[in-house]
Design goal:
By secondary structure, this protein is an alpha/beta fold. Helix content is about 45%, strand content about 15%. The protein contains 27 helices and 23 strands. A nine-stranded mixed beta sheet has the order 7-8-15-14-10-11-12-13-9. Bound molecules: phosphoenolpyruvate (PEP) and magnesium ion (MG).
């Protein structure tokens, strides 16, 4: 078989395996498909033996006696399979029987097949299993076969790992606990998927899968409850795709020659193909969910086109795939915006959750978030925090499609996800949930109390916000103002830049809600992981790229519109302006000039143009070293510890693989903060902290000891932090900061501080990692 065809087959197989409802089906699909693709009489797969550590068991076969599945066990380092696993390399033999490691199992009937080729299935450096193909013709498999099978095993590793995770979860619940890599037993046999605590809290709810937009392979096998509604949805999507293509077509015909335009019409033909429509609807009538039906019919067409002899028709497979994506995009848009479809206790589960998908869930129905990527520093985790819901991030190998619709428990403290929990686990978490609610209730008594240390030093506590929806929690938390209003959030949830008038309306609501209390409004900070759907930017290193103030200065029209909107709304409140991602003083000077220009424009129109206090964010190492120069140009400074930690430690705040290195208590980060506070105070400027460090009880205590004047955090954390500050004296916080100055690693600092919290009776605030 040609390499190109084999790769296509592999691609299709990977998709099928990824979508299989359980591990046995995944493995059966795999061995049948591979035997065919490799033109081998036998293809078998061996996975770890749950009974014997280091051993292997035959889990699926095409060509050997089917009765031997589950019966053939190989001890550690036993047989050719053991050899492949030990060496982590392919073993290719002309005559397997002559090899010293060959072990014969009469039940398989395998002595008939001399040629043997075995490859390991590797995933993240671990041998998950072994795939072996066998043939009657000695010397049948050459180097190319070995490379192809190896490629297949490498591609399939992730999909098999997914299926294994789920099987382990089920086995563990049935009391057949193993010690799996990912579904880690919690000491009592109950398995969970391990991730990272993203936002603290507990949720028990129903998983709702969020798929990457328009990815056919990510659509799960779902049944429909209402075929008629699904068919209507399908026809609407088809009409929308038709219109989209017709519009594209008419613009294209002006630009391309006749022949190419013909090709394009062939494309449009497919959307209007009645046969296609009938097939999809027949599947829906047969019980398939609309997206599943579209996926399957598109795949049938792709398969049919790929097998055609005519090269022109073969090319149509790619068009069909594209058409499938367009249709899916239309359907997913409808799916995401269909209010009322989300369960009342929605837990979003996905490879990557976007702020947009969170905002799409109707108010009050979003209970938690679980993401395969990201960490506590990701904006999605911060947003979850702002919503007061737990988030578990970085759950690698999260089998999204398989969890969809199932009951889940999200533990945002320890980063655990339980799927279909046992009654024991559910009861335990219900109890914890009730305890949390009771603590929150008790803390509301502090709402109108000042945030003062035991000896009377006042620390101003502000809330972070960015959505109108989280204004209410911010007000209820007794925040003395807003320390960080992230203006990009209203930009992210739209399909175009909001107009000046729209922005004035939004900002005015925020300013009015807080009246006399200060609202610190930060200018647009897009880029990094906050991309606007209508301003696509492709960069290799987005966090080191075009973000924050850099983008605003390159687009003065966007920046000036925003500045004018803020200035226009400013008379309705007590407003301070904050500039993100300041890297050089030139940038800052340029931004200050643009602020003046926006004021001048308003004055020309005869409108009031208040002179607002301006602050700079210190979140880039260069700004730490230049704090004094920056401070001299502005009225206040605000440290963004999320980005500062990311840039000082060179640890991507979104990357789960390096999340354990992301720690705002790292001595390099605390030294940087000490230096900023000292330089700013020497220039007579106040310093606030608006990163997540301020919401961490340990972080808040240290920052207070370092002399930080204001702390700003998610509303959900505010009363807890007030409780912490009121439990210690200024002298104690200073001592904590002094001791931390000489610590050589974050672990030492955290351990000391946590002991202090426990001793002060605040142990319930640091349940993380229990
Ligand atoms: C920060 O970087 O700490 C910060 C507050 O800004 P953001 O999280 O929005 O980047
Ligand atoms: Mg930042």
């Amino acid at each position: 078989m040609q390499a190109g065809n084999v790769l296509k087959t592999l691609h299709r197989l990977t998709e099928q395996v990824a979508k299989a409802p359980d591990l046995p089906t995944a493995l059966r699909t795999l061995v049948t498909g591979l035997a065919q693709a490799m033109d081998a009489e036998v293809c078998s797969i061996y996975l770890p033996d749950p009974e014997v550590a280091g051993g292997w068991v035959l889990r699926a076969t095409e060509g050997l006696n089917p009765e031997s599945v589950g019966q053939v066990h190989l001890g550690p380092g036993e047989g050719l399979v053991g050899l492949v696993a030990r060496e982590k390399e392919p073993v290719n033999l002309e005559s397997a029987q002559d090899h010293a490691w060959f072990r014969y199992f009469p039940e398989t009937g395998e002595e008939r097949f001399p040629a043997f080729l075995g490859v390991p299935i590797l995933h993240r450096g671990q041998v998950l299993g072994v795939i072996a193909v066998q043939s009657l013709n000695a010397g049948r498999f050459d180097e190319e076969h070995a490379t192809l099978l190896f490629t297949a095993a490498a591609q399939l590793g992730g999909a098999i790992a997914h299926a294994q995770v789920l099987e382990r979860l089920v086995r563990a619940r049935e009391g057949k606990a193993e010690t799996p890599e990912q579904a880690v037993a919690d000491g009592s046999g109950e398995a969970f998927l391990a991730g990272l605590g993203g936002a603290q809290g507990i949720a028990i709810g129903t998983a709702w899968a969020v798929y990457p937009p328009a990815d056919l392979s990510a659509v799960s096998d779902r049944r429909t409850d209402d075929p008629e509604a699904d068919k209507r949805e399908f026809r609407t999507a088809l009409a929308a795709a038709d219109q989209e293509l017709a519009e594209l077509g008419s613009t294209l015909t002006e630009r391309i020659d006749e022949e190419d335009a013909d090709l394009f019409h062939a494309y449009l033909h497919m959307v209007r193909d009645k046969g296609f429509q009938r097939r999809v609807e027949a599947r829906i009538d047969g019980g398939s969910w609309v997206q599943t039906a579209v996926r399957d019919v598109v795949r049938e067409y792709i398969g049919a086109f790929e097998n055609m002899d005519d090269p022109y028709l073969r090319e149509r497979a790619a068009d069909m795939r594209d058409l499938g994506r367009r249709l899916l995009a239309q359907l997913q848009q409808a799916h995401a915006s269909a209010d009322g479809q989300y369960p009342d206790d929605t837990v979003l589960v996905g490879e990557e959750i976007s702020p947009l998908s969170m905002a799409a869930v109707p108010e009050g129905q979003l209970k938690g978030v679980v993401s395969a990527t990201g960490s506590a520093g990701s904006h999605v985790a911060i947003l979850a925090h702002a919503f007061g819901i737990p988030a578990v991030m970085g759950v690698e190998d999260l089998p999204v499609g398989l969890i969809d619709g199932k009951e889940v428990v999200v533990d945002g403290y320890s980063g655990r996800l339980y799927v279909e929990p046992s009654p024991r686990i559910r009861d335990e978490y219900r109890r914890l949930e009730a305890e949390e609610a009771a603590l929150t209730e008790r803390l509301t008594e502090l709402r109108d109390q000042p945030a003062v240390t035991r000896d009377g030093r006042t620390i101003t506590l502000y809330a972070n916000t960015g959505l109108l929806a989280d204004l209410d929690p911010a007000l209820r938390s007794g925040a003395e103002g807003i320390g960080l209003y992230r203006t990009e959030l209203p930009f992210l949830t739209r399909d175009r830049f909001p107009s000046e008038a729209e922005q004035v309306r939004i900002y005015r609501q925020v300013f009015e809600a807080f009246g006399e209390r200060p609202v610190t409004i930060r200018t647009l900070d897009i880029g990094g992981d906050k991309l606007l759907p209508y301003l696509p930017v492709k960069e290799d290193n987005p966090f080191l790229g075009w973000r924050g103030l850099r983008l605003s200065l390159d687009h003065p029209e966007i920046f000036l519109t925003q500045l004018r909107a803020i200035l226009r709304a400013a008379p309705y409140g007590n407003v301070r302006l904050l500039l993100p991602m300041v890297t050089t003083v030139e940038e800052l000077d340029q931004a200050l000039r643009l602020i003046e220009r926006a004021r001048a424009e308003l004055m020309e129109d005869g409108e009031p143009a208040p002179e607002l206090p301006v602050g700079a964010m210190i979140e880039v190492p260069s700004a730490v070293f230049q704090t004094a120069a920056i401070a001299r140009r502005v009225n206040f400074l605000s440290i963004g510890t999320n980005d500062l930690t990311q840039y000082v430690l060179a640890v991507d705040r979104n990357n789960a693989r390096v999340a354990k290195l992301f720690d705002h208590l790292h001595p390099a980060v605390t030294h940087a903060i000490n230096s900023v506070v000292d330089q700013a105070h020497a220039e007579g400027r106040p310093v606030s902290v608006c990163g997540e460090m301020a919401a961490d009880p340990v972080g808040a205590l240290l920052l207070t000891g370092m002399g930080v004047d204001e702390l700003s955090m998610s509303a959900g954390a505010l009363l807890r932090i007030k409780w912490v500050l009121r439990s210690f004296s200024t002298a104690q916080t200073r001592e904590f900061a002094e001791l931390a100055r000489v610590d050589e690693c974050a672990r030492t600092t955290r351990a000391r501080m946590e002991t202090a919290l426990v001793d002060a009776g605040l142990g319930s605030l640091i349940r993380a990692g229990d």
